[in-house]
Amino acid sequence: MTREGREFCKRLYGLNNFFNWLRERGIITEKPLFPKITGDDSKPRVAIDWETQDEVLKKIPEEHRDIIEFMNETGLRPGEVLALLCEHMDLNNCIARIESTYVSGNKIRPTTKQKRKGVIRLSERAWEIAKKHIQEKLPKQFLFINPNTNKGYLPKVLWYQFHVHSGLENITLYEATRHSFGTQLIENNDIYKVKEAMRHSDI
């Protein structure tokens, strides 16, 4: 399925949910018929190794490099990293609270993908990056600020910076950071430890 086809299906799915919402509230009595979408357009996820991640980082403009390296180090979803506030960092205990994420473009939802909050342990490098970015900021400010706007990053901006400069073809930001983090982790760890580190709801 083409990118346009996937986008069309996504919008159709959203429209279907909207009509369900209207019917549940008694605003309409009957929902229009929607076509059934068949076929499997899924593709295997791709992961890269540490060496490739390091090479990619060198290609990212320096002012945008820290946030992507932080994702490499933590395995957090892009939307979760973008929604991190300074107050979510507990540098004394080397942990970060994951309490919110970006959804639907530019909106922040006060829960994560599984609609639950969690805690992750920071690696030494992730701790260094967090410490650098938390300096002179108020607790409610975003941990990572886009230097071009002096505001928090928007998802499309981060995706753009990564895809324009990374040199990786057909590999998404998610695959290059979170998915690669999990794949690297499982090479030397028990699957249950990886599940906890990735904050997956099941194996």
Overview of this structure, please?
The protein is mainly α. It has 8 helices and 7 strands, in the order H-H-H-H-E-E-E-E-E-H-E-E-H-H-H. The strands form 3 sheets. It has a 3-stranded antiparallel sheet, covered by helices on one side. A two-stranded antiparallel sheet has the order 3-4. Strands 6-7 form a two-stranded antiparallel ribbon. A hairpin with a 3-residue loop joins strand 3 and strand 4. Helix 2 packs antiparallel against helix 3, helix 3 (62-74) packs across helix 5 (124-134) and helix 3 packs parallel to helix 7. The longest helix is centred in the first third of the chain and has 22 residues, at 3-24.
- In total, the number of strands is 7
User: Helix content range of the residues, please?
Assistant: 40-55%
What's the total helix number?
8
Any idea of the CATH topology of the largest domain? hpI Integrase, Chain A
Radius of gyration (Å): 19 Å
Contiguous uncertain segments of 5+ residues: none
User: What is the CATH top level name of the largest domain?
Assistant: Mainly Alpha
Write the layout of secondary structure elements.
Layout: H1 3-24, H2 50-59, H3 62-74, H4 78-82, E1 89-90, E2 95-98, E3 101-103, E4 107-109, E5 118-121, H5 124-134, E6 145-146, E7 151-152, H6 155-165, H7 173-186, H8 191-198
Antiparallel strand pairs: 1-2, 2-5, 3-4, 6-7
Structure at a glance:
By secondary structure, the protein is mainly α. 46% of the residues lie in helices and 10% in strands. The chain folds into two domains: 1-42, no CATH class; 50-198, Intergrase catalytic core (hpI Integrase, Chain A).
